[in-house]
Amino acid sequence: MTGASTRLVALLGHPVAHSLSPRMQNAAFAARGLDWAYVALDVEPAQLDLVVRGLGAAGFAGANVTAPHKLAAAELATTDALSINTLVFDGGAILGTSTDAAILDGLVADRPVVIGDGGSARAFSARLPHARVFSRRTDWPPLAADADVVVNATPVREDVLVTLRRGQTLVDLPYPETATARAARAGGATVLGGLEVLVAQGAASFELWTGVPAPVPVMRHAVGLTT
């Protein structure tokens, strides 16, 4: 139950029913003793502009943006990014940023490959401007034999997109785990799965909204990560 003073944050996507973000963020707010609540809103693409402006006017503190809205949301916000996943409502301003690639913090990526061309792929490509980018609309199949880090930013779950080995790292955005991730792990590669990516970007968003350090262990536990 929320009170009159409860600060609200929304998740905007289509669909959103599958998302673990509400569970994760509400656990984080509770752990920090914040009277905040995170709600998922299924927003049709044609309604995104109206909803974003309405949330700001209604006093929401911010929002996360997920597929298929990340590129369109960047056009509604004050940002230099082409793709965003986080909005902060500051007075009448709509500030946009991307925390999608927060999982890369501390990770050495000298020869990265990004697979995909959607909003998340754009965010990782912006963070890794030297990456080779593969998508079905441009260059396919992906070639990753000499890559040190491979980012799978596609929604593909059942097909193995690349075969990786020991010494390589896969950042696999979808959850539950994909066939690509299972094959990479079997080949000895390091796998940072979709839940790890979710926690990293969620923690960064949490801190942008609240100004408070994110309780990362609590967030990990909320999405089923135990180590």
What can you tell me about this protein's structure?
The chain is α/β, with parallel strands linked by helices and about 230 residues long. It has 2 domains: about 5-100 and about 195-220, Leucine Dehydrogenase, chain A, domain 1 (Rossmann fold, 3-Layer(aba) Sandwich); about 100-190, NAD(P)-binding Rossmann-like Domain (Rossmann fold, 3-Layer(aba) Sandwich). Helix content is about 30%, strand content about 20%. The strands form 2 sheets. Strands 2-1-3-4-5 form a 5-stranded mixed β-sheet, with helices on both faces. Strands 7-6-8-9-10 form a 5-stranded parallel β-sheet, with helices on both faces. Strand 4 and strand 5 (about 95) form a beta hairpin. Helix 1 packs across helix 6 and helix 1 runs antiparallel to helix 7. The radius of gyration is 18 Å and the shape is globular. The protein starts with 6 loop residues before the first strand and ends in a 5-residue tail after the last helix. The mean pLDDT is about 95.
Please specify the SSE layout and strand pairing.
Layout: E1 7-13, H1 21-31, E2 36-42, H2 48-57, E3 62-65, H3 70-76, E4 86-90, E5 93-97, E6 112-115, H4 119-127, E7 132-134, E8 149-152, E9 169-172, H5 179-186, E10 190-192, H6 194-210, H7 216-222
Parallel strand pairs: 1-2, 1-3, 6-7, 6-8, 8-9, 9-10
Antiparallel strand pairs: 3-4, 4-5
Helix pairs in contact: 1-6, 1-7
Number of domains: 2
CATH class of the largest domain: Alpha Beta
CATH superfamily of the largest domain: Leucine Dehydrogenase, chain A, domain 1
* Radius of gyration over C-alpha positions, nearest whole angstrom: 18 Å
Q: Largest sheet, if any? A: 5 strands, mixed
CA-CA gap between termini: 31 Å
User: Level of helix content?
Assistant: 25-40%
Which strand order spans the largest sheet, edge to edge or round the barrel? 2-1-3-4-5
